[in-house]
């Protein structure tokens, strides 16, 4: 700290560079390791080397040939997208009301969603398991979408109301004075300002749904609705006698790709979304 | 006499002001109606999927309800609670969960603070560092857990080969250490991001002034930064503590709870999904909920953690 506030000589730059490198290595090693395993041939899978000696795409071919993985991938994408979409729409409405309108019960609403954000998910497993079994929602897409929306909602309400509070709403009035209708003012002035926040929130909600494991293994029982994280843990390889390590690694890499892409392209937005939602509230 | 006229005038004034208020609040009421309408769908979903089930789970916890013997379902009062709370397995799992929570959150606070300072102050490659730090946050926990599992698998893993002839995931102490390592790797960046938001609130002038007065870097950190950051630190601690307490994914993949490494979530899952015992499973669910509520209460009451958003409510 001393270096950065007072001087920023060459030594300081070096020191920061080393620290940065440590962080990057620390963050990337497990990811690179699983990628390395996914490219290893069956023969070299157990050599313990960090970098594959022989490279192959065989593992990827294997998983895309099995119904099990493709089906789980479709489930994951579908369920996460639908949950995100609904959570963001409902969350945007509520966040707009919280940021813009004055109404009794606002504090309670914020409190309740905070409570849910901190809820131990496992506490919902027993009742949801029983309720969904009775309603015929067990092992269906809807059976996962509902809890995902519920847990993504507090997140969207927080981050979005924080974003919305920063929007200079007077611009709307100014636009109306200049002759724009309410609709035009909203569409041309407010919506473009709000869009980045909504988009960021959508990414955060998607990461949450994509990540979930507990609901995915508790509320599903077949390929019909099992998502990739759940399918991974039940993966036994193409045949019963084959070591599934390579296949699991390949599948793991496939579901990591969207996250890596999000992080690469929207790093700044994800950071601002997480921090504004959680701390500035 | 005058008093009657007075009263009349007063009355008229009151009616007037009432009419006035009604007219004024017409817009206000419309605003309220709109607000409630906008919030209703979100509230309905949250109540239906989180509120109702938690009550239902209390109801289930008071029954003998085992799906393997569905005919024997009956109301048994608190006997499930006695069963769970007098069971050693529950307390072992509770101990494991507490250990993991305390150790990981403590380590994450230190590492997260270091990482936050690095991300906040770094001179070179700030974007790269932030991007890299976000990857553990975004990556699927199960994927990371598999990576750690294979790393420690004898023969296959690059880490297992460091120690000769050992299978760290088959022993309790080393398994727990690996579970904690996996947790710390995964969630330190999240902690760091929350702390970074707190760092951004520290006024640069204050730091400069302290430096001019001859404060060392450490003094500036403890005397200037930490006090300003206190609310952010407490919020981050609260979030991470509650999150750590529900540890599940890592344990499921790394040990599946073998060798007494089950957390309370893992134990509940096993009783419920593997054992199909809804009564006992629900009892554990309720107990975990109570434990989390107590943790949150302690944070809010004793440490004065402001719930996100509440400071803003207070200002109004």
TrEMBL record, chain A:
Entry's localization field: Cell membrane
PROSITE patterns linked to this entry: ABC_TM1
Main location: membrane
Matching Pfam families: BPD_transp_1
Keyword line: Cell membrane, Membrane, Transmembrane, Transmembrane helix, Transport
Transmembrane residue ranges: 18-39, 72-96, 108-129, 141-164, 185-208, 247-266
Residue ranges occupied by any ABC transmembrane type-1 domain in the UniProt entry: 73-266
Membrane recorded as keyword: yes
Membrane topology field: Multi-pass membrane protein
Keyword Transmembrane (UniProt): yes
One GO cellular component term: plasma membrane
InterPro entries membership: BP-dep_ABC_trans_perm, MetI-like, MetI-like_sf
Recorded superkingdom: Bacteria
Gene Ontology terms describing biological process: transmembrane transport
Sequence similarity: Belongs to the binding-protein-dependent transport system permease family.
Name the record gives this protein: Sugar ABC transporter permease
Organism: Phytohabitans rumicis
Top-level taxonomy: Bacteria, Bacillati, Actinomycetota, Actinomycetes, Micromonosporales
From TrEMBL, chain B:
PROSITE patterns according to UniProt: ABC_TM1
Keyword Zinc on entry: no
GO CC entries: plasma membrane
Pfam family, one: BPD_transp_1
Keywords (A to Z) from UniProt: Membrane, Transmembrane, Transmembrane helix, Transport
Compartment list: Cell membrane; Membrane
Membrane-spanning intervals of the chain: 34-59, 89-119, 131-151, 184-203, 276-300
Main localization category: membrane
Coiled coil: none
ABC transmembrane type-1 domain: residues covered: 94-299
GO biological processes: transmembrane transport
Membrane topology qualifier: Multi-pass membrane protein
InterPro entries: MetI-like, MetI-like_sf, Sugar_ABC_transporter
Source organism, top-level taxon: Bacteria
Family: Belongs to the binding-protein-dependent transport system permease family.
Protein name: Sugar ABC transporter permease
């Amino acid at each position: 700290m001393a270096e950065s506030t007072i001087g920023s000589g060459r030594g300081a730059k070096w020191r920061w560079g080393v620290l940065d490198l440590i962080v990057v290595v620390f963050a990337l090693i497990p990811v690179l390791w699983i990628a390395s395993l996914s490219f290893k041939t069956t023969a070299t899978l157990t050599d313990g080397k960090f970098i594959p000696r022989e490279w192959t795409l065989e593992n990827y071919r294997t998983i895309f040939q099995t119904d099990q993985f493709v089906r789980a991938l479709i489930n994951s994408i579908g369920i996460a997208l639908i949950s995100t979409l609904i959570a963001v729409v409902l969350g945007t409405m509520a966040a707009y009301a919280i940021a813009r309108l004055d109404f009794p019960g606002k504090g309670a609403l914020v409190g309740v969603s905070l409570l849910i954000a901190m809820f131990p998910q496992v506490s919902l497993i027993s009742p949801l398991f029983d309720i969904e079994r009775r309603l015929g929602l067990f092992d269906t897409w809807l059976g996962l979408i509902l809890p995902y929306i519920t847990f993504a909602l507090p997140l969207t309400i927080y981050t979005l109301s924080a974003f919305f509070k920063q929007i200079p709403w007077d611009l709307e009035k100014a636009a109306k004075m200049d002759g724009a209708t309410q609709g035009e003012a909203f569409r041309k002035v407010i919506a473009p300002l709000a869009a980045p926040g909504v988009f960021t929130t959508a990414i955060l909600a998607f990461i949450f749904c994509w990540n979930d494991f507990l609901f995915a293994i508790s509320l599903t029982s077949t390929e019909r609705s099992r998502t990739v994280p759940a399918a991974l843990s039940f993966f036994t390889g193409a045949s019963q006698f084959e070591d599934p390590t390579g296949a699991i690694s390949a599948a793991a890499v496939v579901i990591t790709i969207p996250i890596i892409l999000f992080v690469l392209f929207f790093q700044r937005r994800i950071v601002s979304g997480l921090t504004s939602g959680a701390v500035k509230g | 006499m005058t008093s009657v006229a007075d009263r009349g005038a007063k009355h008229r004034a009151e009616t007037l002001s009432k009419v006035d208020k009604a007219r004024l609040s017409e817009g206000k009421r419309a605003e309220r109606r709109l607000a409630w309408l906008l919030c209703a769908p979100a509230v309905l979903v949250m109540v239906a999927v989180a509120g109702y089930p938690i009550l239902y789970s209390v109801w289930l916890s008071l029954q003998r309800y085992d799906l393997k013997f569905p005919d024997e379902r009956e109301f048994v009062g608190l006997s499930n609670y006695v069963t769970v709370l007098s069971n050693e397995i529950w307390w072992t799992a509770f101990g494991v969960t507490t250990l993991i929570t305390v150790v990981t959150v403590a380590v994450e606070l230190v590492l997260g603070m270091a990482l936050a300072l690095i991300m906040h102050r770094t001179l070179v490659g700030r974007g790269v560092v932030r991007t890299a730090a976000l990857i553990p946050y975004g990556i699927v926990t199960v994927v990371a857990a598999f990576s750690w599992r294979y790393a420690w698998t004898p023969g296959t893993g690059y880490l297992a080969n460091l120690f000769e002839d050992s299978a760290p995931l088959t022993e309790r102490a080393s398994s727990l250490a690996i579970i904690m390592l996996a947790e710390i790797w995964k969630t330190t960046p999240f902690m760091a991001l929350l702390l970074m938001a707190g760092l951004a609130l520290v006024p640069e002038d204050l730091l400069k002034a302290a430096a001019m007065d001859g404060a060392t870097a450490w003094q500036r950190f403890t005397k200037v930064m930490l006090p300003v950051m206190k609310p952010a630190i407490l919020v981050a601690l609260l979030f991470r503590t509650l999150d750590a307490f529900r540890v599940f994914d890592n344990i499921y993949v790394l040990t599946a709870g073998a060798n007494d490494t089950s957390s309370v979530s893992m134990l509940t899952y096993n009783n419920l999904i593997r054992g199909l015992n809804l009564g006992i499973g629900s009892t554990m669910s309720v107990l975990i909920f109570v434990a989390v509520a107590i943790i949150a209460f302690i944070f809010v009451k004793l440490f004065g953690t402001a719930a996100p958003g509440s400071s803003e409510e207070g200002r109004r």
